[in-house]
Amino acid sequence: KWLRLASAKLDVGVVLLSTHRLVWRDQKNHECCISIPLSQIIFFEEQAAGVGKSAKIVIHLHPAPTNKEPGPYQHSKFSYIKLSFKEHGQIEFYRRLTEEMTQKRWENTPASQPIPTATASQAGRTRAVGIVGIERKLEEKRKETDKNISEAFEDLNKLMVKAKEMVELSRSIASKIKEKQGDITEDETIRFKSYLLSMGIADPVTRETHGSGTHYHMQLAKQLSDMLQAPLEERGGMMALTEVYCLVNRARGMELLSPEDLVNACKMFESLKLPLRLRVFDSGVMVVQLQSHSEEEMIVSALDNVSDKGSLTAEEFAKLLGLSVLLSKERLLLAEKMGHLCRDDSVEGLRFYPNLF
Amino acid sequence: MQSFEWPWQYNFPPFFTLQPNVDTRQKQLAAWCSLALSYCRHRKLYTLDVLEAQESALFNNKKISRKLSVEAIQVIFEELRKKGNLEWMDKNKTRCLIMWRRPEEWGKLIYQWVSKNGMVNSVFTLYELSSGEDTESEEFHGLEEWMLLRALQALQSEGKAEVISLDDGKGVKFF
Fold first, then answer.
1. Nearest C-alpha of chain B: how many angstroms from A312?
2. What's the whole-number mean pLDDT along residues B124-129?
3. What is the dihedral of CA A299, A303, A309, A312, to 10 degrees?
4. Hey, are the CB atoms on B19 and A342 less than 8 Å from each other?
5. What does the alpha-carbon distance between residue A113 and residue A31 come to, in Å, rounded to a whole number?
6. Distances, alpha carbon A318 to alpha carbons A323, A324, B35, in Å
7. Confidence band (pLDDT; 50, 70, 90) for A79?
8. Do B120 and B175 meet the contact criterion of CB atoms below 8 Å apart?
9. How many CB pairs under 8 A join A and B?
10. Across the strands, what pairs with B170?
């Protein structure tokens, strides 16, 4: 680890790398140290070790600037320095130097303190530089993160602007189609609508989103009807729409259904004369049930269950019937609405009793 | 005092939860009104304080650990008020007069007693009616003055009596 220059004054030492400069400190005389700003480095390369030769790193430098601080040598005929790694550390140093030269962090923040000159009183300053250096590093890291985040969001903003343009475009095309109804064949209209659908833009042309629906939803409804027969029968004829969603998508694996598509398809069951029904409870809970399933019968049987046990909570009822708590609660609420049950609401929870009033 | 006989609903937990089903609620409220009035009649209570009432045996059945919420009590009191059995004493609805017999009903009882004993056309002081020896066996014995007065005023509006002022208070003449 020596600098081979005109004289042999600089021999064994330690080379230190910071984000701003390269520092060499004499191992024996700690007060002797010199530095080169990284900005002065044009290029650097490794020189592998060989027989009798230690590994080296050659650093090519810019010509010295006129405002150069006084150093050990005012000028030199060489435009490079060689760092010879007698023991070890060359690989690691090369890697770190590459990192610092790539990041060029000295460009972001100016060096706050000059390297301590060769005076003993400066020894304490070295340590202060260390802490300040750490703080500076943290600050730089934070700025970097900030920059990355805002750059990422810039892309997102651009995407949203493009999407808006797309929607506008599709709307204008759709309205043009509407105007020129006679000129465009129905086939093309349907194709255009399906393109829109596949892009996720809800059909802007037809008013009704359910009822008449689209071909896609019709097909989907038929598919669902076939698929759900068995599961529904297993579960006593009724399933919450969320359960259906999970079941269907798990089975599909790919080309998953969106919740919207599922609801729209289910709304078509009745008009397509399929044996399933989509039903919405007062609370907003949506279920799919077999047409043959009679909720009224279920309610009467609920009354029997409750009378049998004296009183039941939704959880107890669910356990009894093997239904989900959500569905069993809906059934109890419906029975209450019909006047078969009444409720007892206390700190102990919500229980249902036969309506003896 | 005889022990009060609680109706079956009193031991039915749902009785203490305000029922959401409209028809069920109507039946529930009717039962509560009836219970409240008979309880007050039994204990000869003429006024109620809402907060105290919530802790009383009437609205709080410790045996089944159920009690009515203040909200439910207010609903019941409103029903009673609509039926003419309750009157609020203050704007904040913290105290009320409870008339388990409406003034008109009291008036009728009193007049029956008066005519039965052939004392029509005589004058009575209020004190005589509520606390006199002659009325000891009557239901209206011990009636609080404000209630007695209202009863007599009811009779007055029917033309069966007239409330008059006497030296040391009020009195009534029956026709």
1. 12
2. 86
3. 60
4. yes
5. 17
6. 5, 6, 36
7. confident
8. yes
9. 45
10. B165
Based on the number of CB atoms within 10 Å of its own CB, is A204 exposed (0-12), middle (13-18) or buried (19 or more)?
middle
Look at strands A21-26 and A33-37 and give their pairing.
Answer: antiparallel
Q: For residues B74 and B86, is the Cβ–Cβ distance under 8 A?
A: no
Residue for token digits 């002022």?
B165
Find, among A139, A127, A126, A132, the residue nearest to A112 by Cα: A132
* Chain B interface mutation, best of A306, A333, A345, highest count of B Cβ atoms under 10 Å: A345
Which residue in chain A is spatially nearest to B7 when comparing CA positions? A357
What's the CA gap between A310 and A227, in Å, rounded?
Answer: 39
CA atoms within 13 A on the CB side of B19: 30
Q: Which residue, chain included where needed, has tokens 């330690």?
A: A14
Q: Lowest mean pLDDT of A126-135, A320-329, B74-83, B135-144, name the range.
A: A126-135
The Cα B53–Cα B15 span in angstroms is 16
Structure tokens at A97: 């130097």
Q: What torsion, rounded to 10 degrees, do the Cα atoms B150, B151, B153, B159 define?
A: 170
Across A109-116, average pLDDT: 53
Q: Using one digit for the tens of pLDDT, what is the confidence trace for B26-61?
A: 999 999 999 999 999 888 888 899 889 989 999 999
- Does the pLDDT of residue B7 top 50, yes or no? yes
Which tens digits make up the pLDDT trace of A263-302?
Answer: 988 988 888 888 898 989 888 889 998 888 777 788 888 8
The answer for residues whose C-beta is within 8 angstroms of residue A206's C-beta and 6 or more apart is: A193, A212, A214
Residue with tokens 């802490």: A131
Q: Structure tokens of A342?
A: 């009444």
Q: Are A307 and A254 in contact (CB under 8 A)?
A: no
